[in-house]
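## tool: complex_structure
## caller: assistant
## args:
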Amino acid sequence: MSTAVGTTMLDVRELWAGYGPVQVLHGVNFHVDVGEVVVVLGANGAGKTTTLRAICQMIGTKGRIELQGTQLVGRSTTDVVRRGVAHVPQGRGTFPDLSVRDNLEVGAYTRRDNEVSTDIDRWFDAFPRLADRRSQLAGSLSGGEQQMLAIARALMGRPRLLLLDEPSLGLAPLIVQDLFRRLGDLNAEQGITMLVVEQNANLAFEIAHRAYVLEAGQMAMSGTADELRNDDAVRRAYLGY
Amino acid sequence: MAIGLDTEKANEAVKGGYASLERFGSKRWRNLGILAAAVVVFCIYAIHAHGFRLFFQRIVDALNNGFIYAAMALALVLIYKATGVINFAQGNMAMFGTFIAYVFISDHGFPVWLGIFIAMLISAAGGAAIERLFIRPFDPSNHLAIIIVTLAWFLILGSAAQVIWGADPHSFDTPFPRNRHFDFLDARFFYENVGTWLVVLVTLVLVSLLLRKTKIGLAFRSVSSNLESSKLVGIHIGRTIQFGWALAAAVGTLAGCLIAHNTFLTPGFMGTVLIYSFAAATLGGLDSLPGAVVGGLLIGLAETMIGGYVTPLGSDLALGGALVIIIVVLLVKPNGLFGSKRAERV
Amino acid sequence: MALVTLKERTPVHRAYQTIFWALAIGAMLYVPWFANKPARIDQYTQVVCYAVAIMALNLVIGFSGQISLGHSAFVGVGAYTTIILVADYHWSYFTTIPVAFVLTFLLGFLIGLPALRIRGLYLAVVTLAAATVFPTLIVKYEDFTGGPNGKQAKSRLLPPDWSPLDPKSRFGPVAYRYFLCLFIGAILFLIARNVLRSRVGRAIIAQRDNQTSAATSGVNLAAYKTLTFGLSAAIAGVAGSLLMIETPQATDTKFGVDLAIFLVVALVLGGIASLPGAIPAGLIFVFVPYYTRNWSDNVGWLQGRPGAGAISGVFYGVLLLIFVFVLPGGVMDGIHRVKARLIKVIPNPAWLPKDHAEVVVGDEPLSPFPELVAEPTDSDLTSTTTRGSE
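## result:
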């Protein structure tokens, strides 16, 4: 868990977002630096998923979202993705009718280079369980396998920023442990910048550099992972002790 | 409610009825067994009563229609998979495309194959244009509006064809050698028929390769599988759906051109074909491409065999038979033979 | 932005409502004299009959959110029921109506049963197939139905002795039939409206708007939907009977797929999900083809072309496209928008102090305590609207 590197990957200022007349985020501010893992904690309904969807421009937003200098607000989702943002949605978002291999291949849809097959092989090496099932339909995989597949698929696009929406949801504790360990490795070895929203804070804190707490659509707290982990309120609310 | 019916009890009764039909349908092997037994009995009766030669000949004839239904069903399923909507204009799009081929062939003396090919290209462009201009502006989940658009085009194309070319039948030449045949196992195989089968088979193989080996095919399958995630992967949804429309239009026109020689070309000639294709797609499973093909062949067989052997019905009521098949399938196995469970929803 | 704002349930509001209804009903009653010629009156009678059929269709498409492309079959069954009973078995027209109602109800129920439990598209497919099959059945069983030559009845309804209409004039019987159809149509309208307001109706509408929440709130609608479909079929069947009252002649071509599609088109143009939308829909249904055919007879390049009559289909299609983009709510929606600019009716809660004005020229705020309620502002949200974003 290295210390954060200087330049900012994602800078969000005064973000308002919602679904039609229902506003969920009320002026949210946060940033993610290059190479960091930032965790956003929050209970159900706090607006975590909405935050990620706002970054991807899947819902109406007002405010500023800058990806290394480029404004994202007003662009189409396709455009945002092509600029290097990869989103692993809640519930995995795999393509159930496509094979595991096809899932990976479609992850590289926006790439124009010819290293796609090498990358696919690389991911199969990293996740041998996926390699075993490479021709199986993604819908037949277990929850944990689908989560690995979703992450690998997102990374196939060689994104600048990886967004993860509650990766631990619905997974057994041992699987979640393995998952976060791998995420931590990915960040440490390849420097992949990550923004993770989670309810399950314990494991998320293991790999995070900094964290925010989102409550009722506003950032209630922010700080380094250590600071928040030792904060009484956070401990009681999100860490369970 | 004014009728004084106990609606709660009625609701429960209907739900119970559905559930038991569902249970009946889900015992796959038992049902296949029943179906197989019925087919065997039928075949024995047919051969015994009217001879093997007629039986075999009928099968050969049935396949002709069957492949056409398979092609149209394929077009329907393509659009359904990509958009979740049934394209009610499919039949008239195919009809109009066939008329375009007719214009090139009969009015301008083009060779039949060339005319068909050009018409397919024009249809593809037309399908792409319809998607871009009239479908894409709507939220993909607004199914009602999109269906209304397809109904509007059903009307426009059908009526325009009548205005331009009138309601009288036109003869459409076959691209295959006319009236030539070869005999095999006592049945007559016309070059025309065999040619149709081959062309449709080749088309199916090409479409399959297109979907499985090309990038746009991957995009299409992704959009059909998970629309949200397709956006997250950077796929341009509109253009992918447009591709589906263009492909479906071209396949439809091809099907129309292949069958026009037999049925003669009129503005309404694809009407019954469309119904049979619906039955085929329903039978095969609306979101299954191979299912569409199998469904088409089965419907073609059922139409000719039942129409031929069960004399009180005759061929006029074969269409009614198609309706019955649709209803029975929906009651017993709503996803069709190969459809996925997700297609079902109360 | 309304010109005038009225408060609900005030005497002014009630006066406005009374005047509105009086004018509407008066206009409908005045039609025979307005139309004057018997052929024209017949056309208006047709408007009523088709408006009833379209209203029936609206129960399925507008309120249940499903698509039926087969209501032509129900209209046809009702029509043939009436004409066969009257022509061959000498029943009175009146007594055939309940028979048509019950018969088409059962038919609708049976057709709806398999198709309604799954996506509405299957219903569209099944009904389209039914609409295509129906004319072939008519032709096939021609001993019973008269086949392609059709069936006619000699007897026609005449005004009874107690009515002011003279049965011997040309005007009397035609006007009588108009009023009869209008009266029966009104009854059916009331039935439809009551069903929609009942528990069944509200459940159907809830489910149309959000399938998942309706399902999770425990509302399972298999039987409700099928019953509504049956009722819709029954009303369409009676519309068919009424058509026979207007002109006692039935052929297979009148009740085919074309009719089914045109009913849907007229419904969309008139206004989905609004029962009174059936009135503009009926007018469109009868008069658009009539006038476009007149027009096409006089236009140079269409004259003498064998298929020229079909140009009305092109018109319909284009009109439909325009409406679906510009005014998806149909003519009724357009009327409501215009009305909203003129008159706005706002709630009038009982606890409001009585010294508030009853009529306000211009806008009155929605809430009596404007300082406490933040009005929704037009923010500069970049929104993914209901139109696609790519």
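## assistant note: Chain B touches chain A at residues 215, 218-219, 221-222, 224-226, 228-237, 340 (CB under 8 Å). Chain B has a mean pLDDT of 84. Handing back to user.
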